[in-house]
Structures are given as C-alpha cells and as structure tokens.
Design goal:
Elements (H helix, E strand, L loop, with lengths): L2 E2 L3 H10 L2 E4 L6 E2 L2 E2 L3 H10 L3 E6 L6 H11 L8 E3 H12 L7 E5 L2 H9 L3 E4 L22 E6 L7 H13 L4 E4 L5 E4 L2 E4 L1 H12 L4 E2 L5 H8 L9 E5 L2 H10 L3 E5 L6 H4 L11 E3 L12
Parallel strand pairs: 1-16, 2-5, 2-14, 5-6, 7-8, 7-9, 9-10, 10-13, 14-15, 15-16
Antiparallel strand pairs: 3-4, 11-12
Helix pairs in contact: 4-5, 6-7
This protein binds 4-phospho-D-erythronate (DEZ).
Length: 300
C-alpha cells in the first residue's frame, strides 16, 4: 500500500531511513531548463546529511559530461560519476556486454549524447547528427550506399527524426536479421518545459511496426541500467530509494531492483493513474506531490 507523505515527521522519517537516493531527472528535478521548485534545496539538504546521490535518467539526448554542464547551469551540485544516462548505459552495453567487434559500427538514430558516449567507449558509429541524414529530401534506396560494417542499430530520443533516418535503420535491420536492434529507452512521452511531447519510444515505434520486431531496451525499467550502476557503485538496495515521476519506468525499475520507491506528481503521472478504477498495477511505496515537499523536514 502506498504511503501518502504530507507531514514533516513523515519526510524526516524518510530522510533517516535511506542512505542512497536515486533520482530520475525529467519531471522530478526539472522541466526542460527549469528546475522544479525546491529541488535544488532538497538535493543540498540530502548532501549535507551525508546521503549518496545518483541521477538515473532515460534521456539519451545528453552525455554524462553534458548533464554535468546542465546541473552546473541549474545550480545543482552533481559529479559525472553520479550521473547514469541511458546513452551511457547503451554505450557500455555495446562495448562491454555485446562486445561489438572493433571493425563493426552502430547506426544511430539519436542526438549528440549517444554519439559522445559511443566515442567514449571506443564504439564506431554512423548516422546520428550527420548532416547527410538530417535532411527532409525524399529518401531513395537507389541513392543509398549502405555501410557494410553496420552490425547494430541504436535508437534514442531524436528531435530531428525524419524518414531518411528511419529508412536507413530499417534497411540495416531488414537486410540482416543478426543486426542488433537496441533502443536507449521506451518512454512513450517526454515531459518538456512546455508540456508533454512524444518520447523515445515513439521514435522507435515506426521501426518496430515496419519490422514486426522488438528491440532490446537499455534504460529504466530494464535491469541493464541497474547492472550498469551496480558495476560502478556499491549500495545496499534495502537502504536505497528511487524517486521518479513515471510508474512504468522509474517505479518499476526501483521495484525490480528491490529498492523503495517514491512517486512525485510533477511529471507524467497524475492522481488518476494511482487512484480510481483505471489505476496502474504498479504501486509505489510512497507518493508526494513534488520533490520540493521534502524541504518540510527542515522547517526554516
Ligand atoms: O522519451 C524520453 O527519452 C524520456 O521521456 C525522457 O527523456 C526520460 O527522462 P527521465 O525522466 O528518465 O529523466
């Protein structure tokens, strides 16, 4: 059963109970470039109390290095080794788990975050932000010279998605069934500063439809993301809490890893998703309207 937090003592008890705090980012800490009210103070308070903070985001548009810049710009203390993005996790998966041979390449649908993380892991790629692929010119197979070394397709959130990128990805996956089909994450929507937008799952959906094939998803709720964190950080799941705004990614991810879960209502999940006849079967341990509410543990 979900505990609804509202009293200062409840927030204080929560702070005392968990040592490691894993935060989703979009919809929990910020909307686009706007921090959620109170988020900065709450993170500062947690650090002052000696808590370990980890930032676990499905948003693959940025690398860990660019996230660090974003945290700095928002006035939030964060270190690169505390940041786990699905672009980073996907690059680590391709280099260390899949062990893509050095002479093979990944065709990317996505933005610079994926490219940067693939580079960091020594993985070669084509596509991505290549201007030749960022075109609205009609695509024709007759004019396309496929790269013979492409052995995987990785698809993430891409705000410049077009037919050329989809057609090339489709071609690589269709010509060779052993070509690996990976997606950074499958979020259906993306909570931007000005409202919901189609998410990364909506970008890969045309490929799934055309190929009648499901990709391997790396980000939350998949265990791949937790494996990636656990390979770098030691934490006790019993004393760890995952804070998120989405039931079928953040909260499911926490539950699958044996972590406590706290749902906030500043992102994609609203009250009617957790109560009423159509409520989700994914039930968080705690719910609070906003991360900023934790400030009440330390009244000013
Ligand atoms: O579509 C996406 O990629 C996601 O909606 C988004 O970027 C999720 O980021 P998170 O909430 O995990 O920070």
């Amino acid at each position: 059963m979900t505990v609804r937090l509202s009293a200062a003592e409840q927030y204080e008890a929560l702070l005392n109970k968990y040592d490691t705090w894993m935060f989703d980012c979009d919809g929990v800490l910020w909307h686009g470039d706007r921090p959620i009210e109170g988020a900065v103070e709450v993170l500062d308070m947690l650090r002052k109390r000696g808590k370990r903070l980890l930032f676990v985001t499905n948003n693959a548009t940025k690398s860990r290095r660019s996230y660090k810049t974003k945290f700095d710009q928002l006035g939030i203390e964060a270190h690169v080794d505390e940041i786990y993005g699905s672009a980073y996790a996907a690059a680590v998966y391709i280099s260390s788990v899949m062990k893509l041979p050095k002479d093979k390449k990944v065709f990317v649908i996505g933005m610079s975050g994926i490219e940067e993380e693939l580079c960091n892991e020594g993985v070669s790629y084509v596509g991505g932000t290549d201007p030749a692929d960022c075109t609205l010119e009609p695509f024709s197979l007759a004019d396309f010279t496929p790269d013979p070394d492409v052995a995987a397709v990785l698809c993430g959130l891409d705000s410049a998605i077009n037919y050329t990128k989809l057609a090339k990805a489709f071609h690589y996956l269709h010509r060779d069934p052993s070509c690996r089909f990976l997606v950074t994450n499958e979020d259906s929507t993306f909570p931007s500063a000005h409202g919901l937008l189609p998410g990364a799952g909506a970008i890969s959906a045309p490929l799934r439809f055309a190929l009648n094939r499901d990709p391997l998803s790396i980000g939350k709720p998949a265990k791949t993301m937790l494996d990636c964190i656990q390979a770098k950080v030691q934490f006790d799941p019993k004393h760890t809490i995952m804070i998120g705004d989405r039931l079928n990614t953040d909260i499911l991810f926490g539950q699958a890893g044996g972590l406590a879960t706290l749902l906030v209502l500043t992102g994609v999940t609203s009250e009617d998703h957790i109560t009423g006849p159509n409520a989700s079967t994914v039930v968080p341990d705690y719910v609070t309207p906003s991360i900023g509410d934790l400030r009440s543990a330390e009244p000013s």
